[in-house]
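Page 47, continued from p. 46.
Same chain as before, 266 aa.
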Amino acid sequence: LNNAVARCEDFNRLLCDERFHYIDIDPFGTPVPYIDAAVKGVVSEGVLAVTATDTATLCGVYPKTCLRRYGAVPLRSWIKHEVGLRILIGFICREAAKYDRGIDVLLSYATDHYMRVYVRVWRGAKKADKSLEHLQRVEASDFTIHKKDKVTEIGPLWMGKLHNKNVVLKLKDILQRKTCGTRRGMEKLLERMIEEVDLPPFFYTVDSLSSQLKVSPPKLIFVLTTLNEKGFMAGRTQFDDSAFKTDASREEVCRVIKELASHKYL
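Result:
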């Protein structure tokens, strides 16, 4: 390569002296120690990419650690990966806002082993204020299996969109022209991102709701079709193959599952 320079320096010190259009943080463990310098080190309209491998912390296995590191309460539930991803984005948003910077999320996803976020950083107090409007604390009772669970409120979480639809569509178009061994998996991920991008935060799984309702789980396609026929938005999500997002209330979703189970649409 003629346009790359390898340097062995302290990351935080380097970003005190230089600015970059793209910064990629991919540490072993939590990215928390590097976010402060990164949001200052990226130019306005530059892109910051962040990987977090401390998924157990973000997903609620170690809630006290999550509170110390990210300043947020996680949730150990079927939505734990989405909550963890929104905690990570929310933390980046708050760190950026300290320096009058706002963010737009371009792309984000979560696996069992890591979480990955791409954000565009904008300078300006108004941009920061606009980004902070997407942070909320959320009532957790609808997403816990046992109502006696101690956690009642989680967050603060990023409640804005997890992806920019135009970015995802462009990536999908680029992927069509590429040949790679992981293409099938990437296509599936991008399809799920497109499907969920305009749906509300958080999802249900057919199995978890059916278990709580003590009925046989209907097929996901029947659940989605029925919700759509009733006038609700509904679609699959990247977080679980048996999961779906919808703007229908939990009560309406439960009615649909009971109805389908009673007709044995399995």
